[in-house]
Amino acid sequence: MTAPILVLPGDRAVLAIAGPDRATFLQGLVSNDVARAMQGTAIHAALLTPQGRFLHDFAIIPDGERLLVDTDAAGAEALRKRLSAYRLRSKATIEVLPGWGVALLLGKDAAAAAGLGADPGACAPFEGGVALVDPRLPALGVRLVLPPEGLAALSRHGWPASPPSAYEALRLSLGVPDGARDMADGLLLENGYDELRAIDWKKGCYVGQEVTARMRYRGLAKKRLVPVRIEGTPPAPGSVVTIGGEEAGEMRSAAGDRGLALLRLEAIEACARDGAALSCGEARLVPGRPAWLAPEG
């Protein structure tokens, strides 16, 4: 077995949701089936506006008599406040856990090194917290959701450390969005959240469900977030992408010669069919298709 590499991104926070109503409370709010987390499998989910627009995304992870929520640190307090506003009379507590964080294990042997199977969302206790295979895509590696003492204990495992840029390069090469950085107020079906296992179509109502379901069943998605190869200087997020002088979409996150762009479907088709060029500032973009993204239609 080849030793995985360890990444400490430093931009994650952990919430704990406890109490007898923790599952039913969350079930009416988020895009995925919380019952699966209660049965021992970590899930990825999103919280939307009533109009189906993105607010937050996170992993929901079973941990004894509570659920842990792995989310971006910048939006953690806003997420706590929003969930608290929905709590009403539910018997549930919501708190940001001081000092908790997330480490990443990357590499084909990461799951085995953490004592896990290969299935997305597989999880087990680890150093006072929880280790889990990324529930979106196992190729994203293992997430270690840990208390301060668990983070401090990672050095004894002997895993070679790499900077956060190693995970960023992997994420971009796989075409996976990074929460609010890539979503803004976007729509789940334009950004791969269905294929990335963050939506359950059978669980019943949640905030924004009606709009999301209507987009699926009526085929209303007009754009797709796709990985792009960048020839030139990486454009800033939000930069306009053009094709033949016409607007084709917007740039999202990028690093080096890899990035993500939200593109109109007809622009993606023109690139594949005719070899048409996409421009963004001084850069040329070559769109690809993630292996996990199902063919249209």
Concise overview:
The protein has 297 residues and is an alpha+beta fold.
Topology:
Blueprint: E1 5-7, E2 12-18, H1 22-27, H2 34-38, E3 43-48, E4 54-63, E5 66-72, H3 76-87, E6 93-96, E7 101-106, H4 110-113, E8 123-126, E9 129-133, E10 142-146, H5 148-152, E11 161-162, H6 164-174, H7 179-183, H8 209-218, E12 223-231, E13 240-243, E14 246-255, E15 258-264, H9 265-274, E16 278-280, E17 283-287
Parallel strand pairs: 1-11
Antiparallel strand pairs: 1-7, 2-5, 2-6, 3-4, 4-5, 7-10, 8-9, 9-10, 12-15, 12-17, 13-14, 13-16, 14-15, 16-17
Structural summary, described in words:
The protein folds into two domains: 5-180, 2-Layer Sandwich (Gyrase A, domain 2), CATH 3.30.1360.120; 222-297, Elongation Factor Tu (Ef-tu), domain 3 (Beta Barrel). The chain is 23% helix and 33% strand. The chain contains nine helices and 17 strands. It has helices at 22-27, 34-38, 76-87, 110-113, 148-152, 164-174, 179-183, 209-218, 265-274; strands at 5-7, 12-18, 43-48, 54-63, 66-72, 93-96, 101-106, 123-126, 129-133, 142-146, 161-162, 223-231, 240-243, 246-255, 258-264, 278-280, 283-287. The chain is globular and about 55 Å long.
